[in-house]
Structure formats: C-alpha cells, structure tokens
Amino acid sequence: MINGNAKEPDKLASRAVELLSEFKNSMQALSSLTPIPTLRSPYDWVVPPPGRLKLNTSVAFQRHSLRIGVGAAIMDSNGKVLAARSHSLVGSFYVEVGRMLEFRKGLMLAKFYNLPVSIAECSSSSVVSSICCLSSNLEDTHFIDNDIKALFSNVGICKCQDSSRKGNSLAHNLTSIAFSSIRHII
C-alpha cells in the first residue's frame, strides 16, 4: 500500500527501485561536497576521545517556587546523545548543594543505564575542586560528596572538569524542561 492505496507488486517494486536510486544519488551529491572547516570556541562542547562517553550536567534555581531543575546528558565521541534526563527537585538548597545534586543525578543516570562514562563535566569549578580535593565548603555536602565518589568508581569516571554554559548547553536546556512539567523525563 502506498498512501492508503493498494498497489500491484510490480509497481511497488518499481517505485522502491526509483526511491533507492534517488537516495543513492543524493548521498553521492552530499559526499562530493567538501566540508567547510569550523573553528570551535574553547567554550563549546568538547568531544570526548574516540570510544569514550562524556556526562554533562547542569542545574537551574527557581527560588520563588523552591525548586531546582537538574539536567544531564551522556554523549559519545560523535556527539550522539545516549541518555538524557530532566528532573525537578523540591527544596531550598545552597547553590553548592544544588550543583552537587546536579552532578550526583547525572552519575545516577549513567549507573542506571550501565553506561561506562569516562569524563564528567558540570557547570561549577567549585564542585569539581571539592570532589577532586576531598574537601567541601559546606558540611551539608559531605554525604553528597561520598555518593559522588562512590558513583565515580561504579561508572568509571577518570576525568572530572567544569565547563561553560555554552559547552554544557544541552544539559542546561534540560533544566528548563524540568520547570515546565511536574513529571520528570527519562
């Protein structure tokens, strides 16, 4: 059937051959084009090494409703999104606590899907230094620190770094979605 109308097998096969030929011609036309090199800003998303996965996380605070939005995305070296999550958490959190919860939620996403993430990026240099230096500015974050460190070994993180909002744009956009719905997206 094509567009709801029954077709004879010969006509259907003929149409399939036409479509395949058209597709091959378009692919040849695309492959003959030389790609225009683009210079990436150092603040753009940085591709992980081939065969590696990267986790990006972000958080947004909505003080008037006492909620934070958390976004996380796991991508491969081709920029393909393997998993993404947007989640809203109710509560009034210190900024550092919210940023650590953001990071923890992203690592939990990787663990849930059993994805071996080797690089983790979050939007806060203070969180990265807190995790890497085994210290924190707030007592409230000690239990989150411990969770994050345990998740690091479970997931396979070998590098942790901060990134700009532009380099973390997908995860940051996911935080907005968290505020638009009461339900979270998996």
Automatic annotation (TrEMBL):
Coiled-coil residue windows: none
Top-rank lineage group of the source organism: Eukaryota
GO molecular function list: nucleic acid binding; RNA-DNA hybrid ribonuclease activity
Annotated Pfam families: RVT_3
InterPro entries per UniProt: RNase_H-like, RNaseH_domain
Residue ranges annotated for the RNase H type-1 domain, each copy included: 56-175
Name of the protein in its database record: RNase H type-1 domain-containing protein
